[in-house]
Amino acid sequence: MKQFLVAAAILALAHSLPAPPALHRQVDPSSGPINRELNDVPILRLDNNNDGESYNYALETGNGIAAQETGSAKGEDGTNAQGEYSYTAPDGQQIQARYVAGPNGFEIQGSHLPVAPPVPQEILKALEQNAADEARGVVDDGQYHGQ
């Protein structure tokens, strides 16, 4: 019982001590990486329509950001949407992207996006062989089957 009382007293003492000065420091908002120019960007256009089954919106800001999207809820497929957006990157590059989202997932196109290298011929041949084997009923299930 004495050990419990001593532990409780130490815990109470620890909670009553003030925090180290570093934790009480006031942060100067102008010293951070916040870009003050972005705080007052006017919204030039904002259209937003939603009738419960379909929706569309369009946004345009004073610093060159633009976006628009249309979509609809379609049964088991969930929401299907398509849209585009554009803005100027910090390096000055104009970014433009178009996208679709639906049963096949999110698909995006834009000149700023990396392009995958072409599939090697050997892989294409192997995929063709796999498809031909499956059509003939030859299926490798990954398990060992002794002869």
From TrEMBL:
Keyword Signal included in the entry's annotation: yes
Record keywords, A-Z: Cuticle, Signal
KW Nucleus (keyword) present: no
InterPro entries: Cuticle_Struct_Prot (IPR050468), Insect_cuticle (IPR000618)
Pfam families according to UniProt: Chitin_bind_4
Segment forming the signal sequence: 1-16
Family matches, as PROSITE patterns: CHIT_BIND_RR_2 (PS51155)
One term under GO cellular component: chitin-based extracellular matrix
A GO MF term: structural constituent of chitin-based larval cuticle
Name of the protein in question: Uncharacterized protein
